């Protein structure tokens, strides 16, 4: 779900504190952002205890495009993880040098490492 900066703040504040809010900061012209979006859409199908949102980085003052794609993870209105850029948090076995060549399993691993996914739950 695409959100505006105002919606972003409201959703973080209003979401049940047991639910993870995972925000993908992106720009549609960046290939790794498009790939990340595809992977998050796939993960969202099995992670009903998380709420997935997309926020276009250029609509905020939050981040420079060099830090994209990024993931912000909130729970209970509190920022639990800032994965900027998420490609720096990928497992050592992934294609870190090719930032547009990571898999859905790589993204799942990062989310597990950050606490949003319980291993073997999806």
UniProtKB/TrEMBL annotation:
Domain Phosducin stretches: 7-101
Pfam family membership, one: Phosducin
Family that this chain belongs to: Belongs to the phosducin family.
PANTHER family: PHOSDUCIN-LIKE PROTEIN (PTHR46052:SF1)
Name of the protein this chain belongs to: Phosducin domain-containing protein
Organism: Eucampia antarctica
């Amino acid at each position: 779900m695409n959100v505006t900066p105002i919606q972003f703040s409201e959703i973080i504040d209003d979401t049940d504190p047991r639910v993870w809010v995972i925000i993908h900061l992106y720009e549609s012209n960046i290939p790794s952002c498009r790939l990340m979006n595809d992977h998050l859409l796939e993960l969202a199908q099995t992670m009903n205890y998380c709420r997935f949102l997309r926020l276009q980085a250029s609509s905020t003052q939050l981040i420079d495009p060099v830090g994209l794609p990024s993931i912000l993870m909130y729970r209970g209105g509190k920022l639990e993880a800032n994965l900027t850029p998420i490609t720096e948090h990928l497992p050592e076995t992934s294609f870190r040098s090719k930032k547009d060549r990571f898999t859905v399993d790589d993204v799942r691993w990062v989310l597990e490492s950050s606490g949003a996914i319980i291993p073997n739950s999806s």
